[in-house]
Amino acid sequence: MPTGSTTTTATSTRPSLCRLWRHSGGRCSNRNARVQDATSDESENQGVSVSKNDNTSSSAWPLLRWLVRLKRRPSALLLLVQLLALLAYPFVSESRAGQVISTAISVGVLSAAVWMVHRSPRPGWIAGVLALCGVGAWTMHNAGGSELFGVIGAVGYAAAYFYAAVSLITYMMSDEQATRDELWAAGATFMLFTEAYAWLFVLCQLLQQDAFLAPGGADRPLVWIELIFLSATNFSATGLSDIIPLSPHARTIAIIEQWNGVMYMALIVSRLAGMLGRKRGSD
To answer: Residues 227, 206: contact at Cβ < 8 Å?
Structure first.
């Protein structure tokens, strides 16, 4: 009978969804999975109702499967948030209001980084405290506070990003096997280092107004997208492009970042690639 086949599909689909979610650490209730027999008229009505539930379960399956994958690969979610934020920065970083929006986006990225630290072997509360100090002080600086708040905020942001990057490295190096999530973590760690050094450039610019030469030789402070661009080109050792550090402190930070980037690629990424090669060889 059509009603019986529909009932079987509905009762089998929901438990499978529940088992999948429980396997990933979630909870699911099976109270509504039972279907009772009734008279012929009631069976027809129930057939329509169960068919609707079956369609709902079928449509919910891709979403639940996607959520389970994100739960198993949190580093991919962190990298996705970072890339989306990077795509948004050029549209909001020019004006004063845009800088406030950029700060809000940075808060979102930092929140994702702190969440990821909680999944690493290192204590997550340290990243939370650093993030709160950075966000709070920088918000007060944007609201018209003194330069001291800006300095504290930049230091807090940079320290939180550095701590998150080191935590992800600890997570990647904790065993002798390279998982898919650790490969995503390698990309997310690159972005964390890039953002950390960008905040050090912000700090340097707050303390020394002429620390950098803007594109075209313009006499103005660099906006966030320019600072993070400078940081990315330094960390990847691809060159300084049209932004030049002028002050000794700015050049020192640039040298340290270039060294950090080379060591990260040579030691961390190459080790992950080697572990991945051994894993494929053993398979």
So the answer is: no
